[in-house]
Design goal:
By secondary structure, this protein is mainly beta. It has one domain. The chain contains 1 helix and 8 strands. It is globular and about 45 Å long.
Length: about 150
């Protein structure tokens, strides 16, 4: 049995019905972090959209970027957002800025002790958690302090 950071019973994350976010989720399954970048103006963006936020061209490209960044903000979560998390609190949620991807920001969990000191600006690396045996397989991206 595999020990996952997140407990069973949570809804499985899936790409939006329109499929715009599908490349992001497929990338995670391959341990690749993909972020949108406009081929016309070079603008980086996240969350996934069908149009560039700056020049409005349709279908921005998906570009692989390193799964590393800096903690921009954080929160120690005390109240579970889902019943499956009732016994898992508190836990740490971080907003990670990706300097190599136009400074877009992603939200994720910070692995380790929920009581650890969290430092704004600290370097973190991505940790891919795969749920390949789930009825509908999926992968998640968590964060951990860079060593």
């Amino acid at each position: 049995m595999v020990d996952y950071y997140l407990p069973e019973g949570l809804p499985v994350p899936v790409a939006d019905v329109d499929g715009i976010a599908a490349p992001f989720w497929e990338g995670l399954a391959q341990e690749r972090l993909l972020v949108q970048r406009c081929s016309r103006c070079g603008t980086w963006q996240f969350g996934p959209e069908c149009i560039c936020h700056r020049c409005h061209i349709f279908d921005p490209d998906w570009v692989q970027v390193p799964a590393r960044g800096l903690i921009y903000s954080w929160e120690r979560v005390w109240h579970p957002v889902h019943p499956a998390l009732r016994e898992r609190g508190p836990y740490l949620a971080v907003l990670v800025e990706l300097p190599e991807a136009g400074h877009v920001r992603l939200v994720g969990n910070l692995l380790g002790d929920a009581w650890q000191e969290v430092r704004i600006g600290a370097a973190v690396t991505g940790y891919f958690e795969h749920h390949r045996d789930a009825a509908k397989p999926f992968s998640l991206l968590h964060w951990q302090y860079a060593s």
